[in-house]
Amino acid sequence: MLSHVQNAEVEVLIVGGGPVGLTARALLERWGVRTLLVEKHRELSPFPRSRLVNARSMEIFRQLGLAAQITAAAFAPEFGRVRFRDTLHDSDFASAAMVGVNAPIPESPVIGVVTSQDRLEPTLLAAADAQMRFGVELVGLAEEPESVVASLVDRRGGEEVSVRARYVIAADGANSTVRQRLGIATAGPGAMAGFTTVVFDADLSRWCAQQPAGVYFTAHGSFAPLYPEGGWAWVGPTPEDAAGVDWSDLVSRALGPRTDVRAEVVRVQHWVMNAFVAERFHHGRILLAGDAAHAIPVFGGMGMNAGIADVHNLCWKLAGVLKGWAGSAMLETYETERHPVAQLTLRQAVANTQLALQVQSRRREQLRTGGAASAPTELPWSDRYFAQLGLVFGVTYHSDAVLAGGSIPPEQSDAGTDYVPTAEPGHRMPHLWLTRDRSTLDAFGEWFTLLTPDPTTWERRTAAPWPLRVETLTAEHADLCSLPPRGALLIRPDGHVGARWHDRPSSDSALRHALTAITGSAPPS
Q: Is the pTM for the entire model greater than 0.85?
């Protein structure tokens, strides 16, 4: 019922109850921010949708205490692979591992997982106690100097109420109502093609159990296992006469001739693969995140992960403004930092899609010219192409929320494939094991962190009103960060290096001045 929120006032209204909105809700609750999340559908999505949680997202979920639970419900690491086949029951003619998913990596304390979105979302929902209303649609927005008034409608009973929020996070998908109401344009290819997902049950173990994969690409559509205990999805182009299609027959035939398997259809969903980036992520007190800000083609599994990184970047900034230790101008750095990343991610995803199509094209040409069906097909990428760790871990922020000696354009500093750990300002702080089971990344949370081999000197420097913790780096760790014995790293709550000192500052106010500059707050007295 909406009557409980009539004329309610919250600090942040979150529109959209997918993984991005749910993650924002959990992050903001950790900061003590009062939120209300509204989702126009009556329940969480029953469709698998996004299926890859990359290692950076798992680091964020580790910070929220959710990584172990998500991993326990996901597929084993050996499913972190894609396979190309003529039909599902044929042998692979090409295969590629998902680096950072299929095995542990030294760059992170966690690895990504293959899991279905409908398995992930209940975990995210249970991660916070903040208000959430299903079946409630946003139908109007009115911006005021100090707040936003949202008009909400209960889609079941038609009841309409108003809610006042200090800020709004629009995480309402590629067809975002909020983005459209604000008149924010998008740039990019746009709607690329229509697809259909068919969720079905069938025993396909004879062709897949010994050669697991997160997805099998075939000439007749893609097949993906949904849950460790069973279930499958077929994804392919939507036929022209979709309403008259016998989906069980279509999927059964797509499995290939002589399979003798009947697909028992559970549900069917038609969808459009979009590719665009919103021209702006920030409009007054309203901020776009996830697919509302950038729709990323599915190949490579980067869309949902980019959205999770969006709100990880945004929520600590909102908390700072609402708690009073950051100026409202800091919110402008959200777009400054995340917009270039969205553009880079879109380019990478489009390139991934084109390369996947090249595999199928090469295969057809190989068979047309008399090549043996059992012969492998040359992949149009190197062994490291699917690593993409540069995009997962190597994103570099350049904004007023980073104190750096110089500004390097993102397109020059962010590579998609290779990742070179560095503790320079703007970069994600590298993972180092502080103890046997505690990473540098575990030192970060709802506070700034000062990493230094000389904690005694730095602990004497006051940081109020900013939340700050001092963490000791061993000489070995400091050396790995190229940090001198009396130097320090100031780490933002999102794990990115905000400032760096090579030596003990001469002024006792250096730390306070750095925090003032990063957060855009009033200068210390």
A: yes
